[in-house]
Amino acid sequence: MKTRWLRLAIALLLGLPAAAFAVDAPHDASYTSGSCLECHKLHNATGGALTNRPTMAALCQSCHSQTGRPPRVNWSDTDQAAPGVHGTQHNWSASTTSSVHGALPPLDGNMLSRTTGGVLSCAVCHDVHRANAAYAPSQIGTNVAIGTAQANTGGAGGGQLTLQPLGANPVPRGYQVRVVAGGGFVLSHDFGSAAPTWYIWSGGAWVVGTSAGPGKPFTVGTAVTLDDPAVSVTFSGAPVSGDYWNFYVAYPFLRAANDVGQMCLDCHRDRDQNHAIVEGQLVGYGWGGKPFSHPVGQALNANLANYDRAAPLDADGGTAGAGAYSNPTSTLKTYGGNVECISCHSPHNTDSNALTVDPH
Ligand code: HEC
Ligand code: HEC
Ligand code: HEC
Ligand code: HEC
Ligand code: HEC
Predict the structure, then answer these.
(1) Which of 284, 308, 339, 345 keeps 20 to 30 A from 79, CA to CA?
(2) pLDDT band for position 269 (50/70/90)?
(3) How far apart are CA 329 and CA 210, in angstroms?
(4) What's phi and psi for 26, nearest 5 deg?
């Protein structure tokens, strides 16, 4: 424990922003100043881990509960769920030792060490320093809709930029894409800092230069890759020198793997039940004792009773993604063919109403 805080103090003392302990986008110098002091305070810190707010939720909400932020990443205390009553977000302040819904302290050591005082917090599920792709490979976060033309963030021209479908494993990064004189574009990943680094196009490669360019040439209407081959954009309209667009590509900063809902099953392991348990076939798993919960970790028709469909239908009774309301945020999914907690639940932005499209 002691060495953790020592490491933090040394990292903070050595330099801000500390290159040795990089933070991933968008928590880096793309969408914040890039200083560790956005969240930490070395002396008289009011929060644990030398953080600058008295509670974890207050720290996150100092940025994630502000007017002007996109609804997908923005919520207030009243959004915490109380089942059957209100709320659109997973609880972030309840006890993990006396949960009314049977939740237990996590077994994962990294998660457990963040349940300070036996209480849930944003940091139990999230590590805000690392947008670790391996923990949520298919849950790439961006602040622009992929495939939709975006007006420029700044500049005088009427050009637009469209982020193209991403390739495999994009690196978490913030981008400022800026058109330069001569028609090409340059890039910066730390445009939130006082002195951003610029990448220019020279000899067929990206090298460090100035915002004047030369830029990578592009043709309006044709996709062009950025410095990550998995990320490409298309310019449209009439972009002019000085026009720029800001966006990021990241992952949800998870503390542990959750690609098939493993984090859910860690704390809610009382609900890790297969069809045999739910059908009362497991000897010793008595009626009237432990509550029964919908089977997970199993394919449809696992009990060979032939009453399951081959694939889940939408809430409107039609094929997923089609029908009366083809709502992408209420489509029930299987994971590797299995029903999991996250087939029916999502930790954030769910109003339990299939008629509305949730921020996603
Ligand atoms: C967006 C907010 C945020 C930023 C920016 C941030 N931190 Fe943190 N940091 C936290 C929170 C929250 C915790 C406590 C939870 C945890 O351990 O992750 C923490 C904990 C730590 C720890 C102790 C936990 C461990 O993993 O051992 C270290 C070390 C640390 N931060 C270093 C840094 C450094 C150095 C920077 C700047 C390069 C930085 N942090 C920037 C929010 C932040
Ligand atoms: C200094 C400001 C700041 C603080 C403090 C902060 N964030 Fe963020 N965070 C951002 C910004 C900016 C974004 C990008 C989205 C946006 O435009 O608001 C973001 C995005 C995220 C994302 C989404 C990445 C994606 O998939 O799109 C997660 C998850 C996240 N933050 C978690 C947290 C948690 C948990 C905390 C508290 C421990 C926290 N943040 C504290 C600024 C902050
Ligand atoms: C019980 C675990 C858990 C808690 C507690 C939690 N999150 Fe999350 N969060 C997740 C998971 C898992 C994701 C990945 C996206 C998904 O699965 O929908 C996520 C995604 C996000 C995102 C990206 C938005 C999205 O819908 O993808 C933001 C921003 C975020 N969390 C911030 C927070 C903040 C701020 C708090 C505390 C106020 C918090 N989270 C508490 C598990 C949690
Ligand atoms: C770190 C432990 C932890 C993790 C991880 C976790 N939960 Fe929870 N969950 C809890 C606790 C504690 C409560 C609050 C229970 C209570 O009210 O006492 C809760 C409550 C809930 C509720 C009831 C609504 C609410 O927010 O009170 C649902 C639904 C739920 N969790 C689903 C999930 C799903 C789905 C996941 C995976 C994305 C997940 N949980 C991950 C601990 C956890
Ligand atoms: C087939 C869909 C489905 C699956 C799979 C599922 N749930 Fe639920 N869950 C629901 C519905 C619907 C409700 C609301 C039930 C109600 O209001 O009575 C709910 C309610 C809950 C609640 C609130 C308390 C309660 O029991 O009413 C928690 C906590 C919860 N689920 C956790 C989980 C966890 C953890 C998993 C994975 C082990 C899971 N659920 C799997 C559909 C599902």
Answers:
(1) 339
(2) very high
(3) 42
(4) -90, 10
Does the beta carbon of 347 sit less than 6 angstroms from any atom of ligand 2? Answer: no
Encode pLDDT of 213-231 as tens digits. 999 999 999 999 999 999 9
Q: Is 68 left (phi over 0), alpha (psi -120 to 50) or beta?
A: left
Ligand 2 pocket mutation pick from 23, 27, 111, 114 by most atoms within 8 angstroms of CB = 27
Euclidean distance between the first and final Cα of the chain, in Å?
37
Q: Whose CA is nearest to atom 28 of ligand 5?
A: 101
**Which amino acid residue places its CA nearest to atom 36 of ligand 1?**
36
Tokens standing for residue 345 = 């639940």
pLDDT at 1: 42
Per-residue pLDDT tens digits for 43-85? 777 777 788 788 888 899 999 987 778 888 888 888 999 888 8
User: Closest ligand 5 atom, CA of 268?
Assistant: 35
Q: How many CB atoms lie within 10 A of CB 125?
A: 23
- Cα(350) to ligand 1 centroid in Å equals 28
Cα(147)–Cα(163) distance, integer angstroms: 6
